[in-house]
Amino acid sequence: IAYLFFKKERFSSESFKKIFYILLLFFPILAVIYSYLPIRASANPLINWGNPIDFEKFLRHFAGKQYQVWLFTSTDSAKKQLEYFFTNLPIEFFYIGLLIVIIGIFACFKYNKTAFVFASILFISTVAYSINYDINDIDSYFLLAFIALGIFAAFAFYAIAITLRRKSFELPVSAALFIIIIAVQTYGNFNKVNQDDVYIFEDYTKSLLNSVEENSIILSYQWDYFLSQSYYFQFVEDYRRDVAVIDKELLRRSWYFNQLTICYPGILNGLENEIKIFQQALKPFERDENYDANVLETYYRMIMTGLVSENIEDKSFYIGPELIDNEMRSGQFILPEGYTIVPHLFLFKVTKGNEYVPAPDPEFEIRIPKNTNFYSEFILNLVGRMLSNRAMYELQQGKTDRAILYTDKIRKEMPNFVLPASIRDLKK
C-alpha cells in the first residue's frame, strides 16, 4: 500500500502531510477498536486469552509475544518452510493453475508494471516473513502470497483474451476456454479440499469428554486435536461444561491462572502460594529481563503435581498420553506420592493403590474422513494406542473378555493400526 501511495503521490512534503493527516484520523479509530480488549477483559469473561487488562498485558497480547518464540528460530527452519511452500504450490494451484500464474507474471509486467511491482512485493514479503515461523500449520500464513499469484493469474486471462481477440475469436470462445481451465482446476483440487465428511475432530473431542466421570479434571496439551475444539464445544455449545480441561502448556503463562479461576472455581485452591511465587518469577521472563529458569521450572512442576494432589480426593483426574510419553518418563512431571496411572479410554486415569480400575466400553463413534491428513492420522494412531494400552491392562488383570472388547474395536474402526504382539491374537 505504501508503494501504491508513493507511486501516485511521489516523495514530497505534500505526500508526507497527507500521511500525517491520514494517521491523525487512523490512530484514534485504531485505539477505539482495540480498547475493546481491556474493556472486555476487565469483565473477567470465561475465555480471556492474554488477559489484556492493563497496558503491559495489552501490549504483550497485541504484539503476539507468546508466539514470538517460534519466529526466526534458525536458517534450517526457514529453509524447511521455504521448501514446503514451493513443493506445495502445484497442489494449491493445480498444475494448469500454476501454468496460468507463470503466464500471468509476464503478462502483468507487460500490461501493468505498477500491478506487477505491487503483487511482487506482496508475494516476496509474505514468503520471506512467513518461512521464519517454525510451526506445523504454516499454510494459512502463505495466503497473501497465494492472493498475489491470483493477481498474476488474472492478467494471464486478460492476455489470453486479448490474443484470442486479435486472432478474430469471438468473446464466447474466450469465455469457454476460461471455464474449461477453471473446471479442470476445480476437478483437480476439489477432493483435496472437500471437508464435507470431516467430523473426526468433533467426534474425538466429544468422545473424549464423554469418557470421563462428572466433574473430572483433564490435564493435556493436545492443542490441535482436542484442546482448541473443547473451547468451542464446552463454552459455545455448553457440552460437558462440568469437565475441567487444563492446558498444560498454558500453565507457563501468567494470564492463564485467572482464566482457570473464572472457568473452574476452586480448582486452584491450595496452590495460591506456589502460583504467586511462579508468577513473580515469570514477570522478568515475560518482560525479556534476566530470570531464574530453575525457579520457574521448579514451581511449574510443583503446580502440575499440586493440581493432582489438591483435587484428587473429590474429583477424578485424567492425564493425556502425550504427558506420559514426554513429561512423566523424563521426570518433568511427577505424581503425588502413592499415586499411579491406569490407561482408561482416551486418557490415563490417576489412581491410588493397585486395585482394578474399570473403564467404559468403547462404544464411541469416530467418523474417519475419506481424505486423511497428518492431524486425522495422529488422532487415529493415538486412539489405537490408548485402546491397546487398555486391552493390555485388562489382560494383566485377568479379564480377557474385556481385553477382546477393546481389540475388536481397533480391528473394526482402525484396521490399519498394528496391534502390539501381546494382544494381536486376542479374538472372540
Low-confidence stretches: none
Mean pLDDT level: 93
**Structural class from helices and strands?**
mainly alpha
Q: Order of helices and strands, N to C?
A: HHHHHHHHHEHEHHHEHEEHH
Q: What would the principal axes of the Cα set say about the shape?
A: globular
Strand order of the largest sheet: 2-1-3-5-4
Largest sheet: 5 strands, mixed
Radius of gyration, Cα only, in angstroms? 28 Å
How many β-strands, per DSSP? 5
Q: What is the helix content?
A: 55-70%
Helix count, per DSSP?
16
Tell me the fraction of residues in β-strands, as a range. under 5%
What gap, in angstroms, lies between the N and C termini?
Answer: 68 Å
Structural account:
- There is one protein chain.
- The chain is mostly helical and 428 residues long.
- The chain has helices spanning 2-9, 13-34, 36-41, 55-62, 75-111, 113-130, 143-166, 171-193, 200-210, 223-235, 256-263, 272-286, 293-311, 321-328, 374-396, 400-413, and strands spanning 217-220, 244-247, 317-319, 339-343, 348-352.
- A five-stranded mixed β-sheet has the order 2-1-3-5-4.
- Strand 4 and strand 5 form a beta hairpin.
- The mean pLDDT is 93.
List keywords for this structure.
single chain; 428 residues; mainly alpha; 16 helices; 60% helix; globular
Q: What is the structure about, briefly put?
A:
By secondary structure, the chain is mainly α.
Topology:
Blueprint: H1 2-9, H2 13-34, H3 36-41, H4 55-62, H5 75-111, H6 113-130, H7 143-166, H8 171-193, H9 200-210, E1 217-220, H10 223-235, E2 244-247, H11 256-263, H12 272-286, H13 293-311, E3 317-319, H14 321-328, E4 339-343, E5 348-352, H15 374-396, H16 400-413
Parallel strand pairs: 1-2, 1-3
Antiparallel strand pairs: 3-5, 4-5
Helix pairs in contact: 5-6, 5-7, 5-8, 6-7, 7-8, 9-10, 12-13, 15-16
